[in-house]
Design a protein that fits this description.
A hairpin with an 8-residue loop joins β3 and β4. This protein starts with 9 loop residues before the first helix and ends in a 5-residue tail after the last strand. It has a six-stranded mixed beta sheet with strand order 2-4-3-6-1-5. 38% of the residues lie in helices and 16% in strands. It folds into two domains: 46 residues, no CATH class; 152 residues, Barwin-like endoglucanases. The chain is α/β, with parallel strands linked by helices.
C-alpha cells in the first residue's frame, strides 16, 4: 500500500510517491508490477521536467544565477563582421581591454618604469583614450600571453552560444566599442535567419539582421594570467 506523505513543493510531490512506489514493488504481485512501473515512470518523467525547468530558459538557474550575473573581467559589445578573421579569432575594443586587463597592464607599467601600484594605476586611468605607449603594452601582452576570451551570446540557448576565441588584436580607435568576429561563427550563435552580404562587413550587426535579434550583444570574459 502506498502511504500518503505530506509534500512541501512540486518536486517533493513527485519524489515521495516515487519512493513509496519503489518500496511497494518489493511486495507487489506479478499483476501489480506493470502498474507500479508505469506509475513510477510517469513520476520520473514529471520530476525530470520540473528539474530541467529549474535550470533551463531565461529564468532558469544557469541563465539567471550563473551567466546572467554581474562578474568582474566581463564586458558587453555590439558585434560586427570581419572577413579577415580566422575561425577562432576576435578583435576587441581598446577601452574594454584597458579596463579588463588593467591588472596585466599595471604590472607591465611597473616593470618598465619602476613605479608603485598606485602610481601605475593612476597613469593607466589617465590613458583611457588611445595612447601609443599603452597600446605597445597591449601588443606585448597579446604576443606573449595569447589571451583567450569566452564569448557568450545572450540569451544562452545552446552550447554553441558560448565560444572560446583568441584575441587577434585590439582596435586602435578608442571610440570604437564594437567587437569584430568571423562570419563563420554566426550559425553557432543561433543567428541564421539572414544572408551574409560582403558589403555589410564592418557594420554593426543589428544593421544586418533585423529578422533575428536587434542589437545582438556578446559578453566577452577576458581571462587574466594573474598579477
Amino acid at each position: 500500500m502506498v502511504l500518503a506523505i505530506p509534500c512541501e513543493d512540486n518536486c517533493d510531490k513527485q519524489v515521495y510517491p516515487l519512493t513509496n512506489i519503489s518500496l511497494a514493488l518489493n511486495n507487489a504481485s506479478a499483476i501489480e508490477i506493470p502498474l507500479y512501473l508505469y506509475q513510477a515512470q510517469m513520476r520520473v518523467n514529471e520530476l525530470f521536467q520540473l528539474t530541467f525547468g529549474i535550470i533551463d530558459g531565461k529564468s532558469g538557474w544557469v541563465r539567471s544565477a550563473v551567466l546572467g550575473g554581474c562578474y568582474n573581467y566581463t564586458a558587453r559589445s555590439v558585434i560586427v563582421l570581419d572577413p579577415s578573421l580566422q575561425l577562432d579569432q576576435i578583435d576587441v575594443p581598446y577601452k574594454s581591454f584597458i579596463v579588463l586587463y588593467s591588472g596585466q597592464l599595471i604590472k607591465e607599467i611597473r616593470r618598465d618604469k619602476g613605479w608603485t601600484i598606485t602610481k601605475a594605476h593612476n597613469f593607466l586611468r589617465s590613458k583611457f583614450m588611445f595612447d601609443p605607449y599603452i597600446y605597445s603594452l597591449i601588443e606585448r601582452i597579446i604576443e606573449r600571453d595569447k589571451p583567450v576570451i569566452v564569448c557568450n551570446r545572450n540569451p544562452t540557448i545552446t552550447f554553441g552560444s558560448i565560444l572560446a576565441m583568441r584575441i587577434r588584436r585590439v582596435k586602435t580607435d578608442s571610440d570604437d566599442v564594437t567587437m569584430s568576429i568571423p562570419s563563420a561563427i554566426l550559425p553557432s550563435l543561433n543567428e541564421s535567419a539572414f544572408s551574409i552580404n560582403p558589403s555589410n562587413c564592418g557594420k554593426p550587426y543589428h544593421a544586418l539582421s533585423y529578422q533575428a535579434n536587434l542589437g545582438i550583444e556578446l559578453v566577452a570574459e577576458l581571462t587574466t594570467q594573474g598579477w
